[in-house]
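User: Could you go from structure to sequence for me? I need the amino acid at each position, not a summary. Structure tokens:
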């Protein structure tokens, strides 16, 4: 291989390595990070925990993000099954969080989780009242139609 090409590849590699790992600067290892540290990161739903059940999103069976969320400025956006959604949100003091009515595209989902539908995901998001960040996991606290507590647990998506 030509020496000039090798040098060019090396320079590009050296420039890309910090960019690839820059996501580690966005999230502190410590708990109780400010909400601004969980913004601008794509989060993928991994578990839905309620008093009666735990639904685990098995990533080995899913080829892409089924339920995701990203907080950006004053809006969230993400994917729910096959639809793309967005909604305004407000982050307040003491880890409070409020997500308003969700708008989404209206495609019939080709793939939904057996135990957790897109409809349920959107309804849970609209009832979120608090967030936490622990062990590289974003937890959104919400409740179901019976008033039972539910925790939506997300991990960062590294693209």
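Assistant: Here is the amino acid at each position, in order:
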């Amino acid at each position: 291989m030509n020496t000039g090409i090798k040098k060019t590849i090396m320079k590009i590699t050296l420039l890309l390595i910090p960019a690839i790992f820059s996501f580690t600067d966005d999230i502190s290892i410590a708990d109780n990070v400010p909400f601004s540290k969980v913004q601008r990161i794509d989060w993928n739903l991994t578990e839905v925990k309620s008093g009666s059940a735990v639904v685990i999103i098995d990533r080995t069976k899913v080829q892409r993000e089924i339920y995701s969320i990203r907080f950006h400025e004053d809006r969230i956006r993400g994917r729910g099954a096959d639809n793309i959604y967005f909604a305004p949100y407000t982050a307040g003091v003491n880890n409070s969080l409020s997500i308003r009515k969700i708008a989404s595209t209206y495609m019939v989902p080709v793939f939904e989780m057996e135990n957790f539908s897109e409809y349920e995901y959107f309804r849970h998001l609209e009832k979120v009242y608090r967030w936490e960040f622990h062990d590289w996991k974003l937890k959104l606290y919400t409740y179901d139609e019976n008033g039972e507590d539910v925790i939506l647990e997300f991990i960062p998506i590294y693209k």
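One structural detail worth keeping in mind: The longest helix spans residues 3-20.
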